[in-house]
Structures are given as C-alpha cells and as structure tokens.
Amino acid sequence: VSVVETGDAAQWRKEDIMGTWITIDVRDDEVPADALDAAFDWFRCVDATFSTYRPDSEIARLNRGEIEESQASPQVADVLASCRRLRERTGGAFDPWAAARAPGVRDRPGGGQAPGAVEPAAYVKGWSAAGAWQRLEAAGARNVLIDAGGDVLARGRPAPGRRWRIGIQHPGRLDRMASVVEIDDLAVATSGSYRRGAHIVDPETGKPPSGLQSVTCVGSDLAVADALSTAAFAMGGAGAAWLARQSDVEAMVITTDGLVRVTPGFDALQRNADSPQELPS
Amino acid sequence: VIGATLVGLAAVLGFHPRQPADGLTATSPLGATTTQSQAAGGGSGASGGTQTYAGAVETTQYGNVQVSITVKGGQVTEVSAVQLPQSDSRSVAISSQAEPILRDQALAAQTAAGIDGVSGATYTSTGYEASLETALTDAGLS
Predict the structure, then answer these.
(1) ipTM greater than 0.90, yes or no?
(2) Is the pTM here over 0.80, yes or no?
C-alpha cells in the first residue's frame, strides 16, 4: 500500500486500498495532522477484515467454514445483518451470498464453499466510508469529501457559502459528466455498465446486460445508496420504477437507449447545480 | 499529455423534464453515443488520423488488467478497458470502469468549473497505470 498522491497541508490524500482508489479531501482550516492517518488506517483494517482476496481475513475464515456467523466480530455481524436486510428489501437483486457462490469469487484466496459464504464488498465500500467519516469527525473535521472508488460521501461544505458539487460520470464518455448535483450532507453512489464493447457480459446470463447503462442514487447512507443502485441495475428495465418507490434515495437512471430519467428530488439537486445560490455561511 | 475536455458538460446540464412516468421524470436523451467499442490492436490505423494502442496485460492479484488508448492529433481522446478483473461482487460488466488519469484530468478541469468530486462505477486501480503507461509509450506520448 502506498500513498499515491498527497495534497496541501496533508488535508487531501489518495491511496490505493481494496483494489481501488480512496480519496479524502478535508476543507477545514485546521485539522490534526494525524486525522487522515486514522481514516486511512481504518480503510486498511476494513480490507484486512473483509477482503476475499486475503486468505487470512475474517470473511475468508467464514467462507471456509472455520467460524460461524454467530462467532463473527461485531463489525462483521453488523455488516452481514445490514446485507441481509438489503437482500430482503431488494427481492434478492442485491445478494452478497449469491455473489460468493460465483466461480470467480468462490475460488479467490479468501473464497470458500461453506453454507454461510459471503462476499459483502459491494456494501462494505460505502460502509467503510461512513466509518472513515466518523473518525475524521472525532478528530475535529467538519467539511469533508470521501471518494471510495466512485462512491462519494459529502459532509459540511466545500467552502463557506456553497454546497458540494458532485459530477455523475457519463456512462459513454469517461471525460464527461452525465449530470451535476449540489448536495449538503449526502452520499452519491453509481452503478454502471460503461462501454466495454463485447466485454460486457452479465455473469448470470452470459449476455450483455440490457435496460440500463447507469444508475445513480443519492441518500443519507452511502452503503444503502450503493446497494440500491446495484440492485436496480441488476433489475434492468424494471429497476427505474422500483427505485422510484424507494423513499430514502433520489435517483437518476440512464437507459441503454440514452434516455435519462430522474426522480423529482434528484431533479431538484440538479437544479441546485444549474443555478448555484449564495448560501448563508 | 492527456486532453480531457468538458465540452459536453454545458450541454448535459440543460436537461429539462418532458413527461412524468412511474414517478420518474424523463429528460433529454444523452447526446453522445455509447455503443461503439474500440478494437484493441497496437496502432491500428483508422479514419481521420485516429489510432488505437493496446497497453500490456498486467497480471495482478485481482486478475488481468489491460487498457487501450485512442489517439487523435497527438491527444488521447479515449481510454478504455480491454480486460479488468472482477473487483467486487458486482458483475464483470459493472465491477470496474473509469480510468484514473483521464478521470483526474477531468477532475482538474472541473475544479475550474467548481466541481468537487465525481460519482461513478467502481474502478480498479491495480495494474491500470502500468498498462496505460505502455500504451502511452507505444503512442510516443510519454
């Protein structure tokens, strides 16, 4: 693990953890020098506990049947309980236990075939960002942006008098945005099947996914936003209507024929970005 | 070296709702087409002075990673993934995409436009920059 880049005053840092990039951007005038250290230590601890690429993680031991879920640490038990609720809520479209049975996952160093085998990574990324925020807040930070591999958690303000402006990746042009939203204390997660030509296949069907190119959810809980966007994407064409019924996220979907559809609440966040207003500091 | 432009930004910001359906509002179709795929062949010639260069296949703990770049007029116009590992429990199709350097360039440009961050599908870091570097070297751009 190495520090990829560091910015001014140790308030901006990007590291390569969990096979993706984690960026933390603290905008407070003063924050303890070790606040970012604690947050990145937390991400590394999460990776060591939950990774299916490590034979010695707690999830790896669970997947091999060396421990039962009832013997799991409080953190693992907490994550698995949340995953179970989301599996039920999404009618199985979000299913970390099914994910663990996929051959490419089962055969990893931390994979396995125990009855309780699980791959909770899709939930853990957002959950770990929330844990990092708790550590930064405890250290005195108030105005923070955390980007965990494209999952974004915003707290406070980027500068006095304005909200965080978050671009939503255009699914077809990686150097463009499909939208921009302005948010306060919210999180943004996006699932997509960006252009991959013939390489795009759904492992379940062996065929290219159809219906949706990209799903974005904005909500107060990043892990839930990520799970719901993943689930809606897996539902394909039915995902948009399903998302519209979820009360705790606002959503944007981009269909395979290029139509962009948004919930009224998401549209309001876009309109914020269209005409930024000076906010009271 | 990498020219990331945000010319599409103003255009896509102008979404206006047309009709409500299923509780969602339909807005304008995206302007850019998204269906073309890039053949990965070292320096394959194409129309309009566009060339595609495939980077080396990098073997990582997560699987193989290979990227290709499209160059036009000495500028990288596109970076695409030829191979990426399944980096989490999502499907291969959505497990990892986006491209770090182009993304950072775009972010740099967006800072001027006042954008603080970007939400996108999970992308894979390991091996990506190494494969990209070989493609840039082949294209004479690094």
Answers:
(1) no
(2) no
